[in-house]
């Protein structure tokens, strides 16, 4: 029996050496749960709390009186680990992962999309007769944040406001009978009403789950039998992590919740986000039909199927019906700062047609400014 009762250590090599030299005797390892080796050898060893003298004594008795079959089983489990996780294996894995990281970095650099060809976009806009503009809100139409030399004002930035310099342009676009403007956002209905109520446009709140023409009433595009029983339990988890993470906050909508730690300490916020995900997956959403969407500094939980791409079809149906369109939409421009989950807003407009001069300029990039043009008949 090897008795290792460290109160604190890193990688305890004595435990590994004992296992390695016991292939014939099948000795039993009693290991402190505070030892670094407990994470890898804990399955075959008897783990003890070294502060608990009675537990240590009982474990010694258990080890000395253990049946040969159990000793064999425990030793075999640890022996396989020790003989496969060698220094050579560690070195090869480390170098391999380093190579992979370099390759991934090169791929990311190559995949940066080209900028929107502005002159082409404008000329095609002028030639078209039935245009659809789909605009995001947060970080697309809002007032600038994170300006160099300007201290961030968390309270002010949490309240989304339309950039004042865009008001004149929006008014001109919305007054053009050939142009339909849709603001598609994850924000709630009140936020969109406050910012865009004066314009003649379509508002799609909560990722398109609620829709209205600014001259009409809000309608829901929510699928039937959408299960939202999980929302209260997830809310309790968000409240818990908001309380223990200074300068974090969460937003509650009818179909989703978002926890934002943009203003919290970077490293602490990431640790809290990781703990939050573990809490969620092992509890409130373990059997729920939800999607977890991770942003650069946020965690969002939303019902399955609640994406901007899924909403586009329903939105187009309402627009075509209300405007009694007789001519097809011949110009689509989509601009937004969307999360990865909402990238399908672009693939929705990817035509599966033979290449016959169809001009398509698409760009896809997570958490960045994206633009897409699709010219020709889409309906």
UniProtKB/TrEMBL annotation:
GO terms for cellular component: cytosol. It comes from the Eukaryota. GO terms for molecular function: alpha,alpha-trehalose-phosphate synthase (UDP-forming) activity; trehalose-phosphatase activity. Pfam families: Glyco_transf_20, Trehalose_PPase. One of its GO terms (biological process) is trehalose biosynthetic process. In the N-terminal section; belongs to the glycosyltransferase 20 family. NCBIfam families: T6PP (TIGR00685). PANTHER family: ALPHA,ALPHA-TREHALOSE-PHOSPHATE SYNTHASE [UDP-FORMING] 1, TREHALOSE-6-PHOSPHATE SYNTHASE. This is Trehalose-6-phosphate synthase.
